[in-house]
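Example record for the data management plan.
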Amino acid sequence: MSVLFVTPAHANPFDVYGAGARSTALGGAGTAGARDFSANHYNPALLAVLDGMEISFGYLSAKPSLKLNGGDLGVTQSRGSFAGVTLPRKLAWHRLAVSLSLYLPNNFITRVRSLPESQPRFVLYDNRPQRIVVTSSLAFEVFEDFFVGASLSYLSHTRGFMEMQGIVHLNDPGETLLMGGVDIDFASIRYPTFGVHWRPDQHWRLGLSLREPFHLKLDVGLIVDGDIVTTVAGQTVPLLEDGQLKLISHNTNLFSPRQLNLGVGYEGRLARIYLDLGWHQWSTFPTPTAYIETELDLDPLEFEVPTSKEPLEPGFKDIFVPRLGLELTAIDNDTIGLEPRLGYFFEPSPAPNQSKSTNYVDNPKHGLSVGMGLEFRALQPLFPGPVSLDLAAQAIWLQPRTYRKDDPADLIGSYRSTGWIFSLSTNVNFRF
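Corresponding structural encoding:
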């Protein structure tokens, strides 16, 4: 017996809006081109390429305006701070680097919501950006200009049960006595990202990364054991001994699909261009809705608990996501450096047409980003190394999509979805 609630919460804010202002301004094409703490997310092998210790602090703000039939659904705005530290070293001729990054949302540490499958919602943007992200990485140069790396991101499963025991009085609630306690357990989980980076010459860059899938569980339950009694002619009479009621909620929360990304970059003195192609395994997406099962043991009394209708499988499909980034050198002297940036990505929708009872809304997405990097190179003795400021602005357009129902009597009916998401991010980097 169990009660199962599956909430619409998926992936992390870096998957949605990008990690770090520079990589975001490049359209998220960081598999071969990340050169700061954002490599923890895009390709940890790139961390070993960095020269000198680097500490970064930044902020992200994203405002969605997602609409059904012209009405805004009020998807929560995402705001949060992020930080990263990278420590590269040289062992003989090999490069080695360790790194740690953190994203902390302003509004939530994490959020759980359970909605029926019939309620229309933008299923990939509900809880997806609302969680803390902690990642640690290690990168190593295997041979000259060939690097490997791995990172671990950390989450926590939660299990909480309330157990109650005692007597339930049928016709005198004041005589009911139940004593109970709560047992909550937090179990950490980790999901890895693996990366490879190769520099065949002074200009070309090749990268490959594999991010493993994960889902976060939140199990909450109620277990009641006891006797049921009544009063007959002034005497307390047991009707049932050792009855039991179980309600256990197993929640799948914060799902992220397996992702395989291939990146190619060309880095010249005046311009750098990066191209990524990612495969996202959304076909393993679990049902993001509530399914309830119950168990009631009142033997010898005959009670039947009605079973819940099992939700339909979401039927999502795997997708390929291309990304393109361009970075120019506008100013490059001993005092200051200025690099304008431009990026684009296209993300097809993994969601099928919602022709049945489900309403998991998602649209094809076009992302356009702009930004710049400023590097201040003459701040000694205040700072031992350069200080850089990265800025990025991103607009994600959800291409209009019409969902048509097979049943003309469907309570929701056909509808049209569209929307925009605007985000701003910035970070300051200190090199030592």
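Summary line stored alongside the record: The chain has three helices and 23 strands.
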